[in-house]
Structure formats: C-alpha cells, structure tokens
Design a protein that fits this description.
Length: 643
C-alpha cells in the first residue's frame, strides 16, 4: 500500500525547494486503482498547510479507458485548464497584467467551463490591444509558445504547484508542452506533479514515455499491497478478525493487492461480516459472487437504487464523466425538473456525483454534474450492454448534431463537434464523424490553431479514405422488411440461441450481400463472425475457417477491442471443434485479458467458452467458470447468452 508518511516528507522537501526558487517535476506511477489520486489529494493538503502555503491546482484528465474513442481534438486542454485556474486564483496586480496577455489570445478560443477567461475582467481590455500589436513571429509559435511565456510570467509573481491526474489520457501537445517546460523548470519556482498509468505509457517514442525516462530518478512507483499489509488492514478494518492466513491469502489473491479493490471489499465486509463474534470465518471463500466481483460494494449500493435512478446514472455514464442536466434530459426524454429530482434522490443515498454549477455547456446553459471518481464512472459503463452503449451513443450524436446545426457561435460549434466526434465513433456513424471533423477543421483554419491542425491532419486523411454512407439511420432491407443493424444482430442471436443455425446463415448472407455498401467494416465483421459460428454448429468447419480468416485480415484496420475479443472467441471454438485444445485455450486466454475492460456481454461469452473447453477435458475449474458466467448473465439480465 502507499507509504503516505514517507512520500509526504519527500513532498515537503520539494515544496521548500520550490519556494526558494528551484522548480522540479515529480512523477507518480501506478496502475488503475493503485492510489494516485489519493496521494495527489494528500499532497494538495500539504500545500494548504500554514507552514507550506503555496498556490496549487489539480487538473483532471478524463480517463475513459472504457471507451474506444476517448480522444477529443482539444490540444493543450489540461494546460489551458491549469492556466485558467492560476489566473483566476488571485487578483493580478496592474503591473503584471501584460505579462499574461499573450495567453488570452488563445485561451479565449477554448470553451471549458463557466464564463472561462472572460471572468478575469481586469485583463479583458489589455489582451485586445496586445493582440493587435503582437508580432507575427510570436503568433507563429502557436499556443505552446504563448502558454510557456504565461506560465513563466505567473511563476515570477509567485511560486505554484500543478498536479496533473491521469496524464496518460492527455493529448500529445500537452505532453510535449510539459517536456519543453521541464528543460527550464530548474530555474523557475514551479513544481509539477504528473500521475499516470505505466501500462498506458508503454510505447517507445511516446512523449510521456520520454519524460518518464528523463525523470526516472523522480518517480514514486505505487505497488500492490503485500501479504503483510493485507493482514494489517484486515486487523484494523474487519470486525472480530483474528490472524487467519486462509482469509488473508484469499483476500490478496482476489484483490490482486490493488488498493482500490481492497477498499471495495472492506466496504462490503462492513455490512457482510466475514467473522462471527468468536473470530470464526463464516463466509464461503469459494463463492464466485465474492471472488469474481471487484466493485462488489459499489454494486451493492447500485442495488439500493430504484429502476429510474439506475437508468439515469447508466445514461449519464454514456455521456461522459461530466454530464449536463440539459443533455441528459433530452437523452432520456424527461423534463429537466424530473432529471434534477432523480439526481437529488441519488445524492441522498451516496456521493457518487457532484454538481459543478450551472453554465453554458455544449451551447445550452445547464447544471453540470461530475462522477466523483473514475472508478464509479467505469463500473457504471461496465453495467451497460453492448446494444445499450451503441444505441445511447447514436441518440447522443443526433442531439449534438441538432445543436451543432442550430448554433451560430463558432467556438460553441467547435466544442459540440468534439463531443459529436467522440460519440459518433462509439456508434460507428461515419457521416457524423465526417461532419464533426470538418467543423473542427474549419475552426482550426479560422483561428490558425497550429497544434489543432497538426493532430487533425492524419485523422482527416484516414476519414477521407472511408466510404461515406448514404443512409443516416443505418436501416437496411431483408425480405422487404426494414431492419437496423442492431435489430439484425438481435435477430441473428435469437435464432442462434434457438438452434436455428440455417436461418442465421440465410439472414446474415442476405444482409451482407444487399447491405455491404452501407455497412461499416466493424458491422460487416460482426455479422460475418455470427455467420461463421452458425456454420461451425452445422459442421461446416471449412466454410467457418474461410470467414474467420477473412475477418482476421480486417482486424488491424478496424482496431476494435470488442471485435478482437469476439474474433478470438470464435476462432477458439473453431480450434476446439477441430480437436486443437491447446490452441483454443491460448486464444481464450488472450480473449479473457481483453474482456476485463470490455462490456459484460463479451466477458460472459468468454467465460462460457472457457468453461466449455475445460469441461471437455474434465477440468474441475470448468464449473467455476460456468457458474461465474451464469451469475453474471443473471445479474446483468443477458437472457440466452448461455444455457
């Protein structure tokens, strides 16, 4: 677990150094759930102590690892958030106003929250005059050069500390900015703390990776808890606990020593006592409900919600970690008053969300809420079925498209376009993706945004090579009936579960033939794999193998973890049917690694297939996998996935 006292003492030494004029960078490295955010909050408390009082700002990057399309085209967004915060943190004296003028030419173009930079009223006149006088050579440096000068200017006024959370999710321009600033930071009273997940910063050549290499002697590496630490936690937080190696070993195994998961189990054990008053273990450690459910305390809290409350939270999680009442009410087709009422009810039960206040968000003034922890947000996303995620993103995209077309404000349109791009990628809507990219491109040209142009170029090139679909609603015809892709997918699945394999082959073949020009490559591949699976059930292994090989060739181009997981499962069953047991298990192991961060439907399918293969070999673990898959199916109401 985190050696908080040791790290706090190190941090206090760094604060003293910064106050004396020598800046530095500190890296906090740890995988998801290892306590990076907790440590940053503890460090921020030190900054606010009377003996160490120093301006400090925490900047959160949205760590949406559950989304395949979390990137938004907002270069330097975390950097601009930091600059906005330090400018608003204190009144700036008259003689220092012009020192930060150059930032405002850029900051005024980036809608974030609230009234943003216009709230710094004492600067509003100065930046307009400075903009007119600014030399062309200074402008050509783009926001990066302007921001660097602004951060330096603020540091001359007073020392400060910047905490960047989940920096692995930030854009490349922001990472480059910090790398450039690091070259001069020793001479500036600025202390920058960067938290990141090493698993997401593993590629050579990545800017964040280079920064990690440069400052490897300044890395706080957060590690899993040891057996001894787990035992101490059990003694401290579990009622009637006496030294119990069986329990502590089990606890370490199921939590993998990850602090966040240990806390989840400890919360669960507050109300579900594992020991009686005599210190005897009274729970079944082989119960799959315990061993397979990391987030068990969270899900118990979810069970206390009404159906309306849970539905609202699930829809909100599809919008993002931040969501407005306005957008959420449109998504669920309820009045803002009703949505606000339900949110208040939820807040009375737990502290999973909080209000950020009312301001203009995506073109509409509305109260904006945020999930307090990425963990809560991630668990909710995982509760959504594949079809629900697809359909909700399609609805959000259409709402945003209407807002985009009705707005006359270029900055608001650019903000909406970024969100539209993200949600359209989630439901594979090529037309809306193109619309959003073109809007962002126009904005970049009109503002001469160098960083934005740079990250847009490759994306637009890729998009221009894709076929533009003619049908916006994604409808298609089978036997003179209109049916959507999701409708077809459900139809094929139902027929498969009813052993109507010939019907699956007939329907999928007709659909792929008549709608191949309207289907995305991802959709085409999904239908093809369902067709291959049906052929396997009828013993047509050569036909199934040809289909699978064809899909395999398209995987690198599509780059979808969901598709890859489905593909690995399908190919594994083919190998299994052909008697290649080891090949099948190898593929299912790869699939299970992917499925950990994918929708529950894919987890259940993977667990069920592992159970099927193990059962054939009389492996006793087969029943554990099957029971876990069955329980998850019942918990998330996936009727028909397994029998």
């Amino acid at each position: 677990m985190i050696d908080t006292l040791k790290y706090k003492n190190q941090f206090r030494e760094q604060i003293n150094s910064v106050i004396s004029g020598k800046g530095n960078i500190l890296l906090i490295e740890g995988e998801q759930g290892f306590g990076k955010s907790h440590l940053i909050k503890e460090f921020a408390k030190i900054c606010n102590e009377e003996n160490n009082k120093i301006l400090n700002i925490i900047i959160e990057n949205e760590d949406d690892s559950s989304s395949e399309s979390s990137q938004t085209f907002k270069p330097l967004l975390p950097i601009s958030k930091a600059l906005e915060a330090i400018l608003k943190a204190k009144n700036i004296s008259a003689k220092k106003k012009l020192a930060v003028d150059m930032t405002l030419t850029s900051l005024s173009m980036i809608p974030i929250f609230g009234d943003f930079i216009y709230g710094v009223k004492e600067l509003s006149k100065d930046w307009k005059s400075y903009k007119r006088e600014q030399k062309e050579s200074e402008r050509s440096k783009g926001k990066t050069g302007e921001y660097l000068n602004a951060f330096k200017a603020k540091a001359l006024e007073e020392p400060y500390v910047l905490f960047f959370e989940d920096m692995h999710s930030a854009d490349a321009a922001s990472e480059r900015f910090l790398q450039i600033l690091s070259k001069e930071i020793a001479e500036l009273p600025i202390f920058i703390v960067i938290a990141y997940n090493p698993a997401r910063v593993a590629v050579k050549g990545d800017v964040m990776y280079a920064l990690k290499e440069e400052y490897q002697h300044k890395i706080l590496e957060l590690l899993p808890a040891s057996s001894e630490e787990v035992s101490k936690l059990c003694e401290k937080y579990i009622d009637n606990y006496t030294s119990n190696k069986e329990f502590s070993d089990w606890f370490l195994r199921v939590s993998s020593g990850i602090p966040a998961e240990i806390i989840e189990f400890l919360e669960y054990f507050k109300t579900n006592k594992p020991f009686n008053s005599d210190g005897e273990l009274i729970i079944d450690l082989s119960d799959s409900k315990l061993s397979s459910n990391a987030g068990i305390a969270f899900k118990e809290q979810m069970n206390k919600l009404t159906a309306d409350q849970l539905e609202l939270l699930l829809c909100a999680s599809c919008i993002g970690r931040d969501f407005s009442v306005s957008l959420l009410s449109e998504l669920v087709a309820k009045s803002p008053i009703y949505v606000t009422k339900i949110i208040r009810e939820i807040n009375q039960l737990n502290n999973y969300i909080r209000s950020l206040g009312a301001f203009k968000n995506l073109g509409v003034k509305s109260t904006v809420y945020r999930f307090n922890e990425n963990t809560f947000y991630r668990y909710l996303r995982e509760m959504l079925e594949f079809e629900e995620i697809f359909e909700l993103n399609a609805r959000i995209s259409e709402i945003l498209k209407l807002r985009l077309n009705s707005s006359n404000d270029e900055e608001v349109k650019e903000e909406i376009a970024n969100k539209l791009l993200r949600h359209s990628k989630e439901n594979d809507d090529e037309q809306n993706i193109s619309l959003a990219l073109n809007q962002i491109k126009d904005y970049a040209e009109s503002t001469n945004d160098i960083e934005l142009k740079e990250i847009l170029s490759s994306e637009i090139d890729d998009q221009s090579n894709k076929e533009v679909k003619s049908e916006v609603d994604g409808s298609a015809t089978i036997a003179n009936e209109q049916i959507s892709f999701m409708g077809l997918r459900n139809l094929l699945t139902n027929n498969f579960n009813n052993s109507s394999f010939e019907k699956v082959i007939e329907l999928s073949g007709s659909y792929l033939e008549t709608e191949k020009t309207n289907l995305s490559k991802l959709q085409f591949a999904i239908v093809s794999l369902l067709q291959a699976r049906a052929n396997m059930e009828l013993g047509n292994h050569d036909k199934a193998k040809n289909i699978i090989n064809s899909v395999e060739k398209s995987l690198p181009e599509i780059e979808s973890d969901n598709l890859e997981c489905l593909f690995l499962n399908t190919k594994a069953i083919l190998h299994f049917n052909q008697g290649h047991y080891k090949r099948s298990i190898t593929l299912l192991q790869k699939s299970s690694e992917l499925a950990l961060n994918l929708p529950n439907e894919l987890r259940i399918i993977t667990l069920a297939n592992i159970a099927k293969v193990l059962k054939q070999k009389n492996d006793p673990d087969a029943e554990v996998y099957y029971n876990t898959a069955k329980r998850l199916q019942e918990e998330f109401d996936f009727s028909g996935l397994i029998n």
